[in-house]
Amino acid sequence: MLREPPYPTVLKPYGHALLALARKRKEIVCIGGDLTRQTETDLFRDEIPERFFNAGMAEANMIGIASGLARAGYVVFVNTFGVFCTRRCFDQIAMSIAYPGLNVKIVGFMPGLSSPGGPSHQAIEDVALMRALPNMTVIEPADAIETRQIVNAIADHPGPVYLRLKRGEIPLIFGDDHRFEIGRARLLGPRDEGEVLIIAAGMMIPAALAAARTLCENGVSAAVINSPTIKPLDAGTISPFAARSRIVITAENHTIIGGLGSAVAEAMAEAGMAKPLRRVGIADRFAESGSREFLFQRYGLGTQDIIQAGWNGLGIDKPIPIAPVLEAAAGAYAPV
Fold first, then answer.
1. Are residues 286 and 212 in the same domain?
2. Terminus-to-terminus CA distance in the chain, angstroms?
3. Assigned domain for 327 exists
4. Of 13, 31, 162, 168, which alpha carbon lies 20 to 30 A from 43's?
5. Do 111 and 203 meet the contact criterion of CB atoms below 8 Å apart?
6. 27: domain CATH number?
């Protein structure tokens, strides 16, 4: 079941899920980098301080601590902003976590252009970095329901995981019947298949659903696949739908180089699929400061950008339909 936008929101679904898990499992430990409240781990710190470690603003050292705890038998959750836990300590992750395949879950907040902090805080290449590492699983949930389920799933998954999370108010897009599985993509609709197939993850799911709805209302059948696991990509689910479509569009809050779009392109090429592909995401550039709404529109991550990619890709000689703008009240979340 899918809810209708604008979506209701909740606060700290990751923090509550991690704390609930730690209450039941004594091997769960939590490490932070001076961003406890911002990464929802203040809940963990306040209730289970003996298993909470603040490494300060020393991310490379934080990864070393996580490696040692994992070797001692703990399941380690490392929490900070995405730029700080990928770009800043990439070599330590490669050599101390990924190479030995340790049971460390790296949780990076503020993906892509969700941060108003400019290039120093916008993780636009984190998926590409983590995808390149052997043994690393890469996951990006779309909503609070998926986030809660993912915490439990990655704790049971042996080996390193990079989890990419939005900060702040998290939308409720899926119903309680939604089920997340590592390595599994799922068709969301609004059609079972279509001329246009949109493959999206994370914060781009609301825009992908809105774009598909507008296309369908204007005579172009469209379907959306949610791919929360970016590595390993579920090519077995994606490829048959892609083969039956006329054009494939990927939508990601990340540079179009090395992320979801690249993963889908690789899968299509390996399947021998001669199909047009359009990648909606951040072009090969750094962004600036601003709100989510401003940045998504300025850098081509909005609903209208997905509609345009499908309309122009099909070569339709009619005016491009305009997606309706949804007003979101306080505490609600609407696609850009």
1. yes
2. 22
3. no
4. 162
5. yes
6. 3.40.50.970
Cis peptide bond upstream of 190, omega within 30: yes
Contact between 90 and 83 (Cβ < 8 Å): no
User: Quick one: tokens of 216?
Assistant: 């369908």
User: What is the pTM assigned to this prediction?
Assistant: 0.97
Catalytic residue among 59, 125, 140, 195: 59
- Domain that residue 219 falls in: 186-312
Please state, in angstroms and as integers, the Cα–Cα distance from residue 180 to each residue in 100, 141, 177, following that order: 27, 9, 10
Q: How many CB atoms lie within 10 A of CB 43?
A: 21
- Mean pLDDT, 10 residues at a time, the chain of 336 residues: 96 98 98 96 98 96 98 98 97 98 98 95 98 98 98 98 97 96 95 93 98 97 98 97 97 98 98 96 96 96 98 97 91 94
β-partners of residue 79 are 32, 107
- Same domain flag for 240 and 148: no
59 classed as catalytic: yes
Give the pair of three-digit tokens for residue 286. Answer: 């750094």
pLDDT at 331: 87
Helix boundaries (H) for the chain: 13-24, 42-47, 59-71, 82, 90-92, 126-131, 144-156, 205-217, 235-244, 260-270, 292-298, 303-313
